[in-house]
Every structure is written in C-alpha cells, then in structure tokens.
Design goal:
The chain is an alpha/beta fold. It has 13 helices and 12 strands. The strands form 2 sheets. A 7-stranded mixed beta sheet has the order 1-8-7-9-10-11-12, with helices on both faces. Helix 11 links the parallel strand 10 and strand 11.
C-alpha cells in the first residue's frame, strides 16, 4: 500500500513536520511510499549477544564528554540573533531559550526570530533582518543550508559569524547543495563529531537495545523519515546495526515524509503493519511527538501488545517518559540533550569571533528505558552533565 503525499497544503506540511520532529526539523528532499526490507537469517539460529550487550552498556552510560574547560575571552556587547526552526515546536523553542540564556550570561543582546517552519520564506527573512540589524553573529537552530541558502550566503558576504546548531550545511551528502555557507556547525564529540554522525548513532543505539531485549530474535517494523535529513542518517545507522544480527529481521519498513504525518496516513500504515505482522516484537520511530500525535502508542495499546511489542523512539519528553515507566506503548528512547547543544552553539560563537576554530562541545546520545536513566515522574530527559555551570566557568562568568 503506497503512502499518499499529494493534496496537502505546504503550510500544514511544514507545521506538522516541525512540531513532531522537534529540534530535528531539518527538511531535506521529501519522498513517500512503502518498501519492505529484510535482514535475512534463520530464526532458529543462535547469535552471540555479547557485542550488542557491550554496545548497549556504552549506550546507557552515554556517548558524551565534558564541555570544554577553557575558552578565549568573549567579546563584550555582541549583537546575536537566534533563528528558530519554529517556536510552536518544543524541540525548537527549548534550545532557543537555552541559547538566549547562555548569551545573557555573557551580557550579550540576543534577538530571537521565529522561523515558523520556513513558511513564507521565513528563514531567509530572519537572516536578512539579522543582517539589517548589524548582527555580529547568528545561530540557526534546525535550519538547513538548502532551506535558507540565499540568507546564509548574504550573511557570509556580510562577514557575519553564522553557527548552525543541528543545521546541516550545503556540503553535507544528504543535502548536497554546493559549498558550505555557514561559518561552522556545532561539533558534538570526537567519536561522533557532526549532527549526521550523532543521528546515525541514535539509530545504532536503537538497534542495540532491540537486539538485546529480543535476545537476538527481533522482528521489526521500521519507520524511515525520509523527508528529514536527520531521519535519513538515523535510519542508516539502525539498518546497518540490525543487519549484524543474523537472527533478526525487518519485516516491514514504512517510509514517510512530513506530509504523511498530518492526515492520519502514517497512523493508518502503522496500525495496518501491526495487524499484518502479529509476530513483530519491536518498532522504531524518530520522534516522541510522532508516537503521540500519530497514535503509534495507542495502536500498540489497542492491539493488546504493550508487553510483547517494544517501541523505541527519540527525545524523552515527559508524556513519553510516563509511557516508558508504565510500559504502556513506548519502551525506550535515544536522545541527546538539545539544550546542551544550544550552549555549545554560543561557545562556538565565542571562539569564531576570536578567530579560533570550533571545538568539541561534548553532547551525545544516551539510551533511556525503564531501568536506566529514567527521569523523575513528570520530567523530561536531560543529560546528567551540569554543562551550564561548566560553560560559565570556562567563560569566566560563574
């Protein structure tokens, strides 16, 4: 059954995709349709789980390092603009608020522009307004090169420092739109330096969790958010890691675009897959917002499979954490702390304004489930590192 991607308005598509994707609102080339994919191997064969168990223990510990302990002296009175992927999305507004807080700690003026998911050329307009305001630096939260290329080029021509936070530059293979236009993108860790590497690692961690928790006999309903740059990389990581388990199998892959989350199409495809594959015991999705908005958890509940089917998702928002705790339709997430990313973006600006290179900021992926790293009731996931205090100390403002 093909996923229909026609007849949706551009406004509705962008609003829904950004609201669900959170910080990962990085729209690449959209595609739609279904494809079944399998990782072959006899179900009765045995597999050595030790490598996956070892990997999962590292995932539980977290793939992050400490923030930098020193920084060059920061310039005074910097005029900073922060371009948000869309303030209606928590995944955009939270890191924006943190970037503004970090700038405030330095005594900088920080202006927030709501990119409103790119509707009406908003991303380009925001960058142009920053240029007109004589901004010395711009941070873009979740705005790809190809979503605001003319604005990025204008800022570069004006000599403005532009830092992308989870924003993919033009030379990224999944964007493939010419030479870079950003001054830098925020670096994560030495092991997973880029947003692409980190997204790929999120997919790998999901596979590790599923392989171990199904004892090497995973029957997976996979979802591939092919309309999202981060989704492309996450799916690559998941598929490649699961393929190492020769007794595991992807029984169905649902490929969807942002538009397919807006009208119940994805919800219908998911429910149909659950019915079509009653022996499927695991599934993956990129975003916690989609789990709730598109009724994925509800479908698992309605099918009476909350104890036999494990769903692994994304950010660790409070409602999703509650479901993980109750084992009621979602079982694990593989987040990275996007608020830490925002502080790292400000740290990167400090360095570039001093003509120093970007450094590794330290944020990375960590697995959360019922018995590991679960936040307190009513709370969302935050990394265990007190990065705000560490940054302030490095900046000399603590």
């Amino acid at each position: 059954m093909s996923i229909r991607a026609r007849g949706r308005s551009r406004r509705r598509m962008l609003l829904i995709s950004a609201a669900l994707g959170g910080l990962s609102v990085l729209l690449g080339a959209c595609s739609s349709g279904n494809a079944a994919s399998t990782s072959s191997g006899p179900a009765s064969a045995s597999i050595n789980l030790a490598p996956f168990e070892k990997a999962l223990q590292a995932d539980y510990k977290g793939h992050f390092t400490a923030p930098p302990t020193t920084a060059p002296p920061h310039k005074k009175g910097v005029n900073l603009w922060i371009i948000s992927c869309g303030q209606a999305s928590e995944g955009c507004s939270q890191p924006v608020a943190n970037a503004k807080e970090a700038a405030g700690a330095l005594g900088w003026k920080a202006t927030v522009f709501d990119g409103n998911f790119g509707i009406g050329d908003a991303y380009n307009n925001g960058i142009r307004q920053a240029i007109a305001d004589h901004a010395q630096a711009i941070i873009t939260i979740g705005v790809n090169c190809n979503q605001a290329k003319s604005g990025y080029q204008a800022a570069k021509a004006a000599g403005i420092v532009v830092v992308g936070a989870d924003s993919y530059d033009c030379s990224d293979p999944a964007v493939h739109d010419g030479a870079n236009v950003m001054s830098a993108t925020v670096k994560f860790t030495p092991a997973f330096p880029s947003a692409a590497d980190t997204s790929r690692e999120r997919g790998i961690a999901k596979a590790d969790w599923i392989i171990v928790h199904t004892k090497g006999h995973a029957q997976v309903i996979n979802t591939d958010f092919a309309g999202l740059t981060g989704g492309v990389y996450e799916n690559q990581g998941f598929v490649s890691e699961l393929a190492k388990c020769k007794t595991c199998k992807i029984v169905k892959t649902i490929t969807f675009s942002p538009a397919d989350t807006s009208d119940g199409t994805l919800k219908q495809e998911w429910a149909s897959a659950l019915a079509q594959f009653p022996n499927a015991n695991a599934g993956v999705i990129i975003s916690d917002g989609i789990v709730i908005q598109d009724g994925m958890a509800q479908a698992i509940q309605s099918a009476g499979r909350t104890k036999t089917f494990s769903l692994v998702s994304g950010e660790g928002y409070a409602p999703n954490v509650a479901m993980i705790r109750a084992q009621n339709g979602e079982d694990a997430v593989t987040p990275f702390d996007s608020n830490w990313l925002a502080w790292g973006a400000v740290d990167t600006v400090i360095r570039l304004l001093d003509h120093q290179p970007a450094v590794y900021e330290g944020m990375g992926v960590q697995v959360v489930d019922r018995t590991h790293n679960l936040p307190a009731a009513g709370q969302q996931y935050n990394s265990p590192v007190n990065y705000q205090a560490l940054y302030k100390k490095a900046w000399g403002v603590s």
